[in-house]
Design goal:
- The protein has 18 helices and no strands.
- The chain is elongated.
């Protein structure tokens, strides 16, 4: 034990002398924290929803780059030759190196949390669970870093191997890009990466209900880390060219990869992969906001209105009767080929048939002069609700009714709901502007991409609209807002700060999102869009 602790102290001293290791351990995660803070500066609570990603990047950088860089550089400089002469077993060297890196990761994680708290993030809900989750995450990534160190011949090889794992895990592994924003195939691929489980375990400790709901993630991290540490220890050689000297050395790489595959297949068998994807309407194709939802030409008229909104609906004109076509004329007899044969008598001259009158077209309903004159026929004829972006997409998302927000998000939504009760733009005299102002509340988080708040605020706005305005009037008002996107003023955007929401500078994009949200809510009220 004394030898292990002594070797641990040596490893820590050598680490703080390695500038490259310090760069990946402390500066690199700090840059990520600043970048996340700049990107999500409009959130009500800074960084609290992204600590899972930030701490995962911290562990990933320190374990997959810092650990193998240190080990390979020591091996290249001949430090391990001196260790080989010391009376310490090989396992003690490996264990002390991994333990030293764990201590460094804990320090880097504490630095990240301290910086986030200084910016304005509240304390994590479950500090002990956060430490336990970070320990599992560090163990998984340290095993991965140990395998990289045993595979790489030199430091440039460490960088190449590390990037091959680091970048895919950031993009499609659920670390830098949230799983909800990934396509379905990428979510299935992410099940084979440990980054997905690291983010989940850390985030539920910061804003969720603790590790009770992340047991599978802990098991996955433990399995991946154990396989990596075992493979790295078995492949350990004092010289780089000795690592594959035996056939067993190559086989341990397969063991490390098999753990990733086993975790992914187990996750697929549990059926948890699709749960993170926001539900899409089954009858809605994937589309973007650039596709217009306003019909370019009126559709066939609806013959029956099941729920008329107004008695002023235009009645269909009676179609004129269509006369039967005239009978075909008899065929003219062909001239005989026999010379001298009498010519066929000419047919009697008849007057040309009268032209068949075209039926009068059914006129399209005239555009309403005010929102009070809007009818259900206008709603059905003027908008193509099936062309709206899906609720589970990136643009104008709306959370499913079955999706319960985490406790931290629920508190923020309750704060917005309470603030709306005294928000002056929501009580202006003009009912159209009143609806438009409330839709600004839903549109702004979507424009600035405040995830996951942007998915739940539209539900709060929809709830407020239904409580304040009768259903029949609300449908007319939403129609009018969607049909006239450039009308009204934008002064309510500047008042969003009283709700804890920062207003974007691009009001044109905000108005575009207001139009789409107006159509989505109108489609729900008119029965054209099913609430999930």
């Amino acid at each position: 034990m004394y030898g292990l602790l002594y070797q641990l102290g040596i490893s820590l001293r050598l680490h703080f002398r390695n500038r490259m290791a310090l760069l990946y351990s402390y500066l690199f995660p700090t840059i990520f924290l600043v970048a996340f803070w700049v990107l999500y500066r409009h959130e009500l609570v800074p960084l609290v929803r992204h600590m899972g990603e930030l701490l995962t990047v911290t562990a990933l950088g320190g374990a997959c780059f810092g650990l193998p860089t240190t080990m390979v550089s020591e091996r290249e400089r001949g430090v391990w030759r001196r260790y080989r002469l010391a009376p310490i077993p090989t396992w003690s060297l490996v264990a002390s190196t991994v333990a030293a890196r764990y201590v460094l990761l804990i320090l880097a994680g504490l630095l990240q949390v301290a910086l986030a708290l200084a910016i304005g993030m509240p304390l994590p809900r479950h500090p002990l669970d956060l430490w336990l989750a970070f320990t599992f995450v560090a163990f998984a990534f340290l095993g991965l870093g140990l395998v990289i160190a045993m595979l790489a011949d030199n430091v440039p090889a460490v960088q190449a191997l590390g990037q091959c794992i680091f970048l895919p895990m950031l993009i499609i592994g659920g670390v830098a890009v949230r799983l909800e924003s990934l396509p379905a195939w990428a979510q299935h691929v992410s099940a084979f990466f440990p980054g997905r489980y690291a983010v989940e375990a850390l985030q539920v400790s910061v804003t969720g209900d603790g590790l009770e709901g992340a047991r599978f993630s802990l098991v996955a991290l433990l399995l991946i880390g154990g396989a990596g540490c075992l493979a790295g220890a078995k492949m350990f050689r004092w010289e780089a060219e000795q690592r594959f000297a035996t056939r067993e050395g190559k086989g341990w790489v397969v063991v490390a990869l098999a753990a990733w595959a086993a975790v992914g297949l187990l996750a697929e068998s549990r059926g948890d992969i699709a749960m993170v994807r926001r539900a899409m309407l089954p009858d809605q194709p994937s589309s973007t906001a650039s596709q217009p939802a306003v019909r370019a030409e009126p559709p066939a008229p609806v013959s029956v209105l099941t729920e008329p909104l107004s008695s002023d609906s235009a009645s269909d004109l009676a179609a004129l009767p269509t006369p039967s076509p005239p009978e075909a004329l008899p065929e003219t007899a062909a001239s005989s080929d026999v010379e001298g044969a009498p010519a066929a008598p000419a047919p009697p001259v008849t007057a040309p048939p009268a032209a068949t009158p075209e039926p009068a077209p059914t006129p399209a309903p005239s555009a309403p002069a005010s929102w009070q004159e809007v009818t259900l026929k206008h709603i059905e004829d003027d908008f193509a609700f099936e062309r709206l972006p899906p609720d589970g997409g990136v643009v104008t998302p709306i959370a499913s009714l079955q999706e319960d927000p985490d406790p931290q998000l629920a508190d923020e939504l309750e704060g917005i709901r309470s603030a709306l009760l005294s928000w002056n733009p929501g009580y202006v005299e003009d009912p159209v502007q009143r609806v438009r102002n409330l839709l600004f509340v839903a549109a702004v988080p979507d424009v600035v991409q405040v995830e996951p708040l942007e998915r739940y605020v539209p539900l709060v706005v929809f709830e407020q609209l239904q409580e304040r305005i009768p259903r029949s009037e609300l449908m007319k008002l939403l129609y009018w807002v969607a049909r006239h996107p450039s009308e009204g003023d934008d002064t309510a955007v500047d008042q969003l700060r009283f709700l804890g929401l920062a207003g974007p500078a691009d009001t044109a994009m905000t108005r575009e999102r207001v139009t789409v949200y107006a159509l989505k809510l109108l489609g729900r009220l008119a029965g054209k869009i099913e609430s999930q």
